[in-house]
Here is the input.
Amino acid sequence: MNIRTKMLLCFTVFLLLLNGAVFLLYETSEEMMSDYDHRMRRLLLLNEVSQRANRMMEQLNAYVSEKEGRYARAYEQEFRWLQQRRRQLGAILPVLSDRLAAENYEHMIESLLEEAALTVYHFQAGNIGLYSSHLHETMNIASFLQEETLNLIDDELTAYQRRYDEVERRNRYFRYMGMGLFVTTLLLGALLAVFFSGHLTKPIILLSRAARSIADGRLDGPDIEPMTNDELRLLTITFNDMRRNY
Here is the structure.
């Protein structure tokens, strides 16, 4: 193995150790940020569902009270939004809580929309008793929906706190590991530097002494033993041959 290969190997080991520690810390940070982003999106969606359900009820009450088309249009807009987000909630709710609670919440939104649609239908048909009954049921479901939304948000925040504590412990472990790797790398670098410098400088020192002996006229010194298997070995052998040929 020549000197260049030894040096490249040494630097490669250093880079792998340092890059490995940096990569682990980076991956942990990215994982935590991604988890935080997903959880915040879910919380914001739950909060918006709750607000939209309230607005839908406000517009529905205003419509059956005032009988104005602008309230009906505003109600339809909120109704369609909840219909679209109900499918999206079906995908993310199992992540938020247990499957039973997720299914109950999704069915609650579905029931709210059904009762609201029946309220409008019977109101427009002039069935006062039926639309009043469905309106009352719609208001009850909306109230339950608000309560369940708060429960889901509370569960999510509790789960996030546990997740945060877990990630914090892992980050602390990785920080300790990173400091350990840094110290280990420094010690390893010092050992390798001493090792390589000894292998590189000792043959050169011996050659320098032999060269000074030749300059002083002493040509009968012993051969210098090659100590490495690189370019210095060839130089040592060549030097010994040249001195014997004088």
In short: Residues 128-215 form the longest helix (88 residues). The domain at 26-181 is CATH 1.20.120 (Four Helix Bundle (Hemerythrin (Met), subunit A)).
